[in-house]
């Protein structure tokens, strides 16, 4: 068995795909990142499985991930890109993904105006995705976009939605900001088909690495209260974690925050929820 699963890992190849958000100003992120770069770190921490998550809205990025998965049996799944605003292409892609390691679909919806999600083409695409049984990973740029997850869930009750990075909580912000975020994720959690990733939990203002475990812990506690452990899953958010103090630091923080939980609760967050939501085959 794989033991712990990291359900949010990125790889990218600047020579094979285009990443419009990733330029020279991205610092240490502006280079190729292969699974070989993180595999030893995962193995050293008993993390035997990983899910790769798209980093660009184009097919070439998906192929980079699928090629990595073909080389590494510990890559249990790929959250691929397919255009959710083009139902015909999405249908064709879903058929082509059948039998592959594709376990979910993600678009960089936070790169669009929020009104983009209201387009009838997007609604049609989400209906196609819901019928396929694959979940939708949903990234947000601000906590306010969490409200869009609530809307999508109500309009597509058969769609499983994975809220990435807990919807960008205001870590290091004001009590009022935390209250607003907590209210929003509670609304998301009322949809039983929604889950959330404990991933990318960094400082919301200032340097990305200016978070501390004590600053992050209240938001993890809020997520546990809203979703319960059985609807949360761990993600290391590598290589973005490089800018937030490194994978080792973020892993140490999450394990410390989860230590008071029961073994059953930790198992759910560290592998069980990912296995269920992404329908992972966990023997390698």
UniProtKB/TrEMBL annotation:
Keywords of the record: Hydrolase
InterPro entries in alphabetical order: Amidohydro-rel (IPR006680), Metal_Hydrolase (IPR032466), Metallo-dep_Lactonases (IPR052350)
GO MF annotation terms: hydrolase activity
Gene3D superfamilies reported in the protein's UniProt record: Metal-dependent hydrolases (3.20.20.140)
Ranges where the Amidohydrolase-related domain occurs: 5-280
Enzyme Commission code: 3.1.1.-
Pfam families cross-referenced by the UniProt entry: Amidohydro_2
Domain of life: Bacteria
Family per record: Belongs to the metallo-dependent hydrolases superfamily.
Protein name: L-fuconolactonase
């Amino acid at each position: 068995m794989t033991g712990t699963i990291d359900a949010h890992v990125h790889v990218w190849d600047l020579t094979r795909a285009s990443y419009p958000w990733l330029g020279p100003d991205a610092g240490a992120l502006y280079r190729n990142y292969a699974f070989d770069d993180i595999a030893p770190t995962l193995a050293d921490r008993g993390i035997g499985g990983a899910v790769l998550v798209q980093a660009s809205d184009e097919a070439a990025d998906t192929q980079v991930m699928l090629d990595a998965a073909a080389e590494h049996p510990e890559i249990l799944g790929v959250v691929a890109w397919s255009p959710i605003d083009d139902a015909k292409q999405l249908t064709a892609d879903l058929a082509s993904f059948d039998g592959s390691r594709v376990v979910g679909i993600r678009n960089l919806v936070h790169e669009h105006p929020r009104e983009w999600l209201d387009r009838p083409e997007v609604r049609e695409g989400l209906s196609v995705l819901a019928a396929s049984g694959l979940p939708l990973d949903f990234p947000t740029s601000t906590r306010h976009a969490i409200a869009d997850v609530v809307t999508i869930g109500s309009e597509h009750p058969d769609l499983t939605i994975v809220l990435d990075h807990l919807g960008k909580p205001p870590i290091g912000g004001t009590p009022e900001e935390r209250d607003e975020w907590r209210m929003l994720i509670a609304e998301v959690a009322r949809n039983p088909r929604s889950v959330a990733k404990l991933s990318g939990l960094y400082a919301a203002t200032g340097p990305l690495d200016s978070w501390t475990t004590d600053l992050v812990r209240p938001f993890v506690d809020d997520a546990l209260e809203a979703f319960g452990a059985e609807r949360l899953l761990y993600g290391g958010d590598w290589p973005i974690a490089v800018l937030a103090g490194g994978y080792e630091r973020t892993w140490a923080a999450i394990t410390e925050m989860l230590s008071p939980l029961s073994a059953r609760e930790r198992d759910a967050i560290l592998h069980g929820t990912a296995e269920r939501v992404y329908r992972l085959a966990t023997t390698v």
